[in-house]
Amino acid sequence: MPRDQALSTPSSTSWGSLVRAQYRPFPELPSAAEGEANSAYHASAGWSKSQLWDHASRGARYFYLRHVARSIQSEESAALAHGTRLHRWLEVGERLFEELVAPPEDTLTETGQVGKKAQQWALENAPGKELVSGKEIKQLRREIEAVMEHRAARKLIEEAVAHEVSVRWEGPDGQLLRCRPDLISQSAWVDLKTTKEADILDSFWKSVVTYGYHAQDAHYQWGMEALGMDPRPLNFVVVSTVWPHQCHVVTLPLDLVSDGRRRLLASLADIRIRMDLDYWMPDQHGEVVELPVPAHIRRMS
Predict the structure, then answer these.
(1) Residue 12 has what pLDDT?
(2) Cβ–Cβ < 8 Å for 20, 158
């Protein structure tokens, strides 16, 4: 299906294909559309899970500076860029490697990195392509192989109904909310995650609680409900960036998702009040306060 067209009416009534019948031109809500540019989605109105998690985990002041005043720029890193490329593969398949180019080894820096010499080579020999190291291309190939060798992950990908669907709806208190599942299959909404954890089932939970993936699960289920779908657990396809590149498809415990939902609701309530008051400083700002110290540390003194 052309990516610049609205979702068409499905030929079946399966759970996963219901989203295809839910498209309504924005701003009529709820809406679901495939083909919106990633930059346009992220610049649009409506609170995403990532924004709400910034409030929940970093506080109101950071939330204001990052997402209201927009004086803090988006974070960038090699790991985030790598994850973006793997997400691109999920959307376009092998075409990803037509969009990438690795420079000759003699143009790399002494540490094997892409530097000015490699950039100049790409400008002259591969204009319009994204420049990455040959090492990263090999890593992407290994990670993709790990994903496609995992039976459940492969099934979700092969049964894809749509990719990168922008979903918008009105939250419980009237605030505009949005989410963008990487993939919608016949049976689940899917999010692709990369992790530096070598043993996913042993330690990926650390990333879940740190980055708020349990809140993401709750947020996406709100989106499902808004579209008239039965809420189902988000399926996380998790692949390790560390050799031998484990891959697992996981869902999260219900009590953890419930806690994520509670934190999002608390953030939405606080944001609404602060937007009305236009006050974003931390609680007790300007006062003399006693420093909070954990009880087990105090017992050691």
Answers:
(1) 40
(2) no
Q: What CA–CA distance (Å, rounded) separates 16 from 292?
A: 47
Instruction: Write out the two tokens for 187.
Output: 């049976």
Question: Domain 1-75+150-281 falls in which CATH fold?
Answer: Lambda Exonuclease; Chain A (3.90.320)
pLDDT digits (tens, 9 = 90+) for 265-301: 999 999 999 999 999 998 889 999 999 999 999 988 6
Residue 177 Ramachandran class (φ > 0 left, ψ -120 to 50 alpha, else beta): beta
Angle at the Cα of 167 (from 193 to 55), degrees rounded to 5? Answer: 65
Under 8 Å between Cβ of 195 and 226: no
- Tracing tokens 């492969």 back to the chain, one arrives at 154
**CA atoms within 13 A of residue 86's CA, in its CB half-sphere:** 28
Amino acid at position 228, single letter: G
**Tokens at 50, concatenated:** 């990532």
Instruction: Report residues of the chain scoring pLDDT below 70.
Output: 1-27, 301
Residue partners of 24: CB distance under 8 A and separation at least 6: 30, 31
Q: What is the pLDDT of residue 27?
A: 56
Nearest to 67 by CA among 78, 56, 77: 56
Domain ranges of the chain: 1-75+150-281, 76-132
Q: Which two tokens stand for residue 81?
A: 């860029």
Strands 100-101 and 130-131: parallel
Closest CA to 32 of 126, 165, 149: 165
300/7 Cα distance (integer angstroms): 61
pLDDT tens, residue by residue, 4-28: 434 433 334 444 444 444 333 455 8
